[in-house]
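Here is the promised in-class demo. Please do not try to memorize the tokens; focus on the logic of going from shape to residues.
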């Protein structure tokens, strides 16, 4: 078998240019030629993983099948490539240092002085090559977080420099830059790109390909100018215009031959490419539909849409599957609670989604939204904390359990309908306090869940500490809240729902279905939720 090829993706000029989308697009195009591809991300911050980060700092925390709390770019990788990533696909500076320091404490370095070079850089290199060596991918794409010039990224860039030297024809660097448009001058400016490449070269890395993000088309002459000043081949200067849908980006890269350039530079066969399904999917996304569907997402971090990126993507996938135009109404649960204006905020939507979250703030607003959805028969979808709030709401208003709550928010409540369950810890020897990663769920017959999945056993990803309290479960079920699924041993509730004769579509899932939805394969629960929202439209 051929050796693994390594592609490094760095960013210059500014952050938020979409390195994750470019990495995913390159991966998609190589995969479409029948190559096996994986993508990993290095984040230069000191946290061990983003699990403890406030979503306002770093957007959503994505969860992999093996229960790793990861950067949201892994969501893009999975959605574009249809692959499953793991802990090895997302490394932070904190993790690199921790593993070096752990080795030092064990005495593995035999008395040597531990330094950034070579010990930290060696650990970075080991983590880059791990995916290639262990899983034998044809291509490993490594995205470096941050921007060239940041102090934190230096050890990563030095590692790339060394790897390029060691790997020769088996490695290349794609540098993503920004070409701004100055309205006053009526011109695009290439100087920031030249400076950023100069910065990269001063570290010893000559980029092989430039991807230039721009709001306006870049002329051929300008591309040639950048090629000349940045010392790259003219055909290796690719423009990346803002797309209507992120899923168009691979096609825009394809049109300019980015994948062909990659293959040529890495000495790989230019195999025929099959992008037919992807093109069809993008055409469905871009089509203008007469049907409109408006969904309220009632959460705490709604001002930063990146905090709910997988939910927004899943809703879009599901809307397209139902041939409808999606509008998301972002509702701040805390503000709605303060202003006490549920009706005003929610009377114009076709469906209400309450996503996951941690901590007390905004909880009562979410519960008010759920009560509104239940009483007004508006399709409702609760995810993780959203499901827990649905149980609290039902207990309070339908089961006579006044003051029912989650022990997370009110440890002294008389009715802790959501609580820590001893069953949780020994489920799969996960040990930790959170239920993280993939767990099986037995689907109960005759439920909305069964109708959506059409399967008896499903696997979904979890990230939570609390569970439906088994001590109060029967009392709640007796009053009409139905169980849609549990762990196969029946010991933890995974899905609750209302029967169809009581409510058109009301379902809460303890897991996070949004991490599994793909543009080519929308998640069944999102698909059914949107279908119900369209059916029930006033
Ligand atoms: N805070 C809740 C728990 O820990 C829900 C977590 C979530 O929504 N991801 O169980």
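The designed amino acids, position by position:
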């Amino acid at each position: 078998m051929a050796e693994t090829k390594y592609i490094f993706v760095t960013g210059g000029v500014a952050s938020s240019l979409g390195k994750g989308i470019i990495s995913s697009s390159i991966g998609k195009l190589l995969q479409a030629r029948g190559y096996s591809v994986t993508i990993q991300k290095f984040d230069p911050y000191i946290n061990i993983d983003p699990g403890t980060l406030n979503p306002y700092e770093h957007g959503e925390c994505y969860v992999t099948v093996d229960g790793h709390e990861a950067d949201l770019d892994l969501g893009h990788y999975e959605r574009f490539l249809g692959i499953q990533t793991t802990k090895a696909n997302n490394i932070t500076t904190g993790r690199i240092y921790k593993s070096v320091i752990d080795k030092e404490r064990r005495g593995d370095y035999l008395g040597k002085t531990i330094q950034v070079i070579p010990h930290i850089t060696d650990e970075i290199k080991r983590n880059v090559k791990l995916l290639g060596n262990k899983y034998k991918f044809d291509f490993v794409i490594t995205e470096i977080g941050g921007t060239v010039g940041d102090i934190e990224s230096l050890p990563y860039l030095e590692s790339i420099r060394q790897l390029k030297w060691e790997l020769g024809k088996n490695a290349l660097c794609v540098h993503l830059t920004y070409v701004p448009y100055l309205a006053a001058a009526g011109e695009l400016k290439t100087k920031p790109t030249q400076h950023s490449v100069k910065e990269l070269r001063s570290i010893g890395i000559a980029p092989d390909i430039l991807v230039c993000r721009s709001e306006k088309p870049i002329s051929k002459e300008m591309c040639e100018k950048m090629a000349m000043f940045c010392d790259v081949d003219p055909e290796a200067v690719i423009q990346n215009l803002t797309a209507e849908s992120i899923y168009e980006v691979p096609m825009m890269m394809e049109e300019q031959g980015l994948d062909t350039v990659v293959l040529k530079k890495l000495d790989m066969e230019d195999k025929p490419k099959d992008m037919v399904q992807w093109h069809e999917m993008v055409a469905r996304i871009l089509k203008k539909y007469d049907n409109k569907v408006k969904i309220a997402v009632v959460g705490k971090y709604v001002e930063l849409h990146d905090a709910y990126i997988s939910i927004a993507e899943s809703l879009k996938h599901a809307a397209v599957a139902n041939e409808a135009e999606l509008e998301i109404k972002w509702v701040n649960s805390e503000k709605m609670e303060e202003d006490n204006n549920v009706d005003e905020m929610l009377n114009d939507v076709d469906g209400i989604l309450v996503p996951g979250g941690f901590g007390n703030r905004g909880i009562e607003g979410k519960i008010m939204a759920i009560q509104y959805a239940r009483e007004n028969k508006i399709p409702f979808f609760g995810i993780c904390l959203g499901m827990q709030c649905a149980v609290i709401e039902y207990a309070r208003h339908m089961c006579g359990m006044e003051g029912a709550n989650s022990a997370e928010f009110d440890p002294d409540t008389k009715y802790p309908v959501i609580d820590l369950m001893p069953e949780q810890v020994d489920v799969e020897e996960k040990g930790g306090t959170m239920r993280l990663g993939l767990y099986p769920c037995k689907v109960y017959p005759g439920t909305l869940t069964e109708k959506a999945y059409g399967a008896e056993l499903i696997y979904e990803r979890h990230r939570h500490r609390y569970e439906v309290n088994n001590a109060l479960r029967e009392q709640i079920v007796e009053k009409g809240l139905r169980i849609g699924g549990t762990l196969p041993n029946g010991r933890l509730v995974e899905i609750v729902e209302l029967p169809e004769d009581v409510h058109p579509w009301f379902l809460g899932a303890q897991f996070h279905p949004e991490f599994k939805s793909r543009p080519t394969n929308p998640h069944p629960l999102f698909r059914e939720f949107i279908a119900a929202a369209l059916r029930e439209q006033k």
